[in-house]
Each structure stands twice: as C-alpha cells, then as structure tokens.
Write the structure tokens for this entry.
Amino acid sequence: MTDDFKEIEKMEKAELHIHLEGAVNLATIQKIARRKKMPRPGDDFYPNSHYQNFEDFTRVFENVLAYFTSEADFFDLGYDFAEHQAKQNIVYTEASLMPHVHEMMGRDIKAVLEGLDKGLAAGEKDFGVKVRLIYSISRMMGAQAAWATLDYIDKYPISRVVGIDLAGMEVKDSILPFEAPFEKARQMGLLTIAHSGEFSGSDHVGHTLDILKPSRIGHGIGCCEDGSLVRRLVEENVPLDISISSNVSLHAVSSLEAHPVRRLFDQGVKLTLNTDDPALFKTSLTDQYEMLMTYFSFSRKEILQLVRNAFVFSFNH
C-alpha cells in the first residue's frame, strides 16, 4: 500500500452517487437471513464484479431486495451502511433508495422509509457521519413512478431527503415524461439528479440537460463524443458523478483504459468520484481513487481536487 493510498484512506471524504440497495454488505444480508430464518447466503452471493449485461446485474440486485421486507430490515440497512461509510472515513454521503420499487414488491412503504431513517439516524449518532437521501426513480416504470415518489416525500416527510434521481436503462424518448415531475420536485424545494450518458451518447445527455435541468448528471461519460456538449457542462458548471468500476463492470466502456475520466478532467468538466453499487462491484471509494492514480496518472493535487468537489457539489445545506 503506497503512502498516497494510505493518505486517501485516512482522508475525510464525501460520496454522492451510491445506491443503498447495491451497497449492502453480505454480513447484513446474513444477519437478516438469520433473524427471518431464511437460507443463509454464502460467500458466492455476490458472484463477481463483472456482469454479462445490465440484465445480469439486475438479477443480482433483485436477489438483494428479496431480503428486505420489514421495518427492522431497513433499520439494519441504514445502520450498517452508516457504519460502513464511517470505516472508510466517508463523513458525508448522499445515498439513493428506490422507494417505488420496494412498494411495487409489496413492501409497506411507511415501514421502509421510517425503518431506514431510524437506522441511518442511529448510525449517524454512533459513527459520527452524515447521510442524506435521494429518492431514485426507475425510468422504465414511467412517470407514475415519479409522481408516486413525490407523494412519499409529501406523506412521509423525512428531513434527510434532499432530492430525486432518474435512473435505469436509457432508451429513446424516456426523458420527456419526467419533465413535469422534475419541475414539481424543484417547486417542493428538492434538488434533482439524472443518470444519463451511462449507456447512451451525447444526444441523451444534452436532452437530459434541456428537459430535466438536473443539478448533477449521474455518469455522463457519453458526453465525450460531442465537444460542444463538454464545453456546455464546463460553462454551466454541471458536474458528472463518475463511477469507474461500475462503468467497466457493466460494459459502459470497453475497458478500464478506455474510460474517459482523464480526458473529462483535463477538459475542465467538474467530476466527483463514487462507487455506485460497491457491494455488487466489490470496490470501495478508496479503491476508486487508487485507480485514478494507478491507471490514469492523477497527481496528489488532482486527487485532492476531486475530494473537494464531492463536498462542493453536494446538496449539504
């Protein structure tokens, strides 16, 4: 372990793009399985960090969700997540949850949200970190999922909820239905994020900026094919939440070496570094920073800039 790596490990960090359902440690799932007398998952529960396609990844994601059915389960999810972030010296996190997906799976949404909030609160108290929530919406479930998500925020007010996010596979014409819900969210005092340019090109990123007007773009790496769009991101100071291992594991890029993170940084695009779904990709935030130094020749000064970016572009008000 290099001195720079040790320094990053000890440094106070923030993380802005991490899905709670994709960040569940195996120990948490095993604990819940014991309590509920379910089959105890083995060490191969998370089979590998590379997936054949997005559908292959989704199957593992769904296997995780099957264990979370009660308020106690979501308490454990929140508490253990806060502990895990604290162990990495991630003092501030914006973590995403897909509440509408859980309700569609038959969960009591009030129990889901209250259990998670209580678990996070207890974890914050015990481990000295801060976690804010972003409610994520699957674009494949349509605008009704967005309106339902805004209803949850209205009916079950939780102060740690700071914004909404649009996620899921990017297909043609999948943005426009969310224009009105995103505008309504801003009227409610929420901030907005949208996954875009993960599996699509620059056109999708441009349309996302025009229609949804997000404060940050999740991934956004497809912007590289359009120099004018890159300049727009720089001029409008819209950051990209970059997740290198995720992009490699899900084949959003052809290889680690092909990832455009170095090029985007050098062109002046504001970037934050994240893990996305660290349990499924078997990575950590410190690992992601080490990748930048090892494979993309990021200097210590450049690493420190990215660490600062995560605090600067957070919704921590």
